[in-house]
Records
---
Amino acid sequence: MSRPDPTLTPAPKVKLSRLRDIGWSKWDPIGLLGADQKWEDKDCIPFADEYDRYLLQAASQLRRGISDQIVVSYLVDIEANYMRLGASRGALNRAQAVVEAIQADEELWTYPD
């Protein structure tokens, strides 16, 4: 699917539910979801937006053409330093999986008509 020329069209909007699907299934650095849980489950709704700001930033950076590696580094830094989880063993792999999934999801962005 080709994307419209960004200089000629309004900026696309992210489908937050799809971004959450990616983030919660690939990232969840705090480990809030238990096995077999999904972010949209009734008991998870109170914290469903926990990672939104980071995922939105990552997706926005990728859409603007920022390199995958810079966005991976951003997510690793958020996890290690902002969330204060320190350097964790799977951080790099989780961040790479998120970036790859965002890049691969052709339905993540809604383009105005």
Note: The chain has one domain: 13-110.
---
Amino acid sequence: MDTKTALFYVFSAILLFAAFRVITARSSVHAALYLVLAFFNAACVWMLLKAEFLAISLVLVYVGAVMVLFLFVVMMLDINVDRLREGFWKLFPVAGTIAAIIAVEMIWVIKRGFNLPVAAQPDPALAKLSNTKLLGIEIYTQYLYPLQIAAVLLLVAIVAAIALTLRRRKDSKYVDPGAQVKVKKADRLRVVKMAPEVAPAPAAPAGDAPQATGGQA
């Protein structure tokens, strides 16, 4: 067994263990961390298969962005997972049946993929190109229309998510940046000239009248 085969078995074993812990961990935070570990080991397997672009995309997009955002959302929402697990065993037969159907379909597709006819000899000019450049050529030539359709669907999904989550409260205070830019100093400060006012001296009480100091003759 060479080093490449040994690394493949190591990464695959860790990947299977992490994927199993994703669905069995009681804490949602731990499940998200195990999913990050599963993505990282899947990227390592793709690196062994010389699919560098897919491996780097998996690490940057899913591990570096999506899973970190998901982890922050889970930690901020503080979801009660115990209440979500109450009806787990009631739905287990249906979930197991669907999982078995998906597994059979995946095995059938993968088995047909291994029975492909022998491909012709590749073009020597294309053999000198990198995987990333070859992938870009295939995407933007043969699969251009599916790529554009997927981009439109993602854009619609983003707009729909923003529209569904946007709730403007009536009692909230917000600042209009446009009004702040258009403001002038005369709108903020106004100098008013006023005449000085002198308060009158307080009147003396009636009982405190001054008495005569001279004696009687």
Note: The mean pLDDT is 79.
---
Amino acid sequence: MTRQFALPFAAAGPEADSAFLVTDCNRAVIDRLFDWTRLPFGAAVLIGPTGSGKTTIGRAFVTGSGGCFIDNADGESDETLFHAWNRAQTQGAPVLFAAASPPAQWGIKLPDLLSRLGASLLVKIPPPDEEMAALLLQKLLARAGLAFPDALAAYAAVRMERSYPAIAALARTIDEMALAMQRPIGQRLVREALAKLAGTDGGSTD
């Protein structure tokens, strides 16, 4: 059963999400991460591609735990990361680091920092399942003011590449084609958008 995870705060900024989606593909990760009282050393590293919800999850983590969130941690200095990890120990407030890759790939120079991050809980956002793909397509198109019926979302979800970047690319393509062609979003437009991304002619009638 899918649930919309309501965040316990007013989202900051006009582009911020006030909720993130939880389906079978990421439920275990979310449940483990938000059990912050049991995080080893009060620290966790969240790994996931662009568009997978890391920033929104991080904001909710801070609000719920009273801790710290460092987004794009792979671009921060060793000193910044080291101090954040140490504060989690001295102040008792957990820290969540987020990046697209694990700490071993961040170019960390301080061995002590690398070992500390290695001792933290590492959680990776799994690839989206069919349900997540459909729901996220609807969410992204809703941002553009476009209604995307359940049937169309399901149609696209079973035919598209199953990744967060691919979902974002399909939503952008559907939006652009609907505007350019001045056509309502229907199965034909979705099929053509899928074909455009795949580099085919879109002639199939399935």
Note: Residues 86 and 116 are 9 Å apart (CA to CA).
---
Amino acid sequence: KSEKYALGTDMKKCMHQILEYTIVAHKKYYKKTTLQELDVEVTKLKAYTRLAKDLGFLPFKKYEVWSGYNVEIGKMVGGWIKSAKQ
């Protein structure tokens, strides 16, 4: 039970970091490092989601939904990184 709570806390913290990096990257003129940190947080969230499913904390149907959201966020961040490099 404590691991389930700790994993939930880690996921929540990761989502807050994603929001924070998104706001910071939007406001900064030089976005490269902030977008890289944002990409790392999205990757961490994907890993936490997979771990929650593997440990049985997240039912498969909910995992599919969460995984779809994670992929969509990853695509948006990837597009943002690509446009920032140009």
Note: The mean pLDDT is 94.
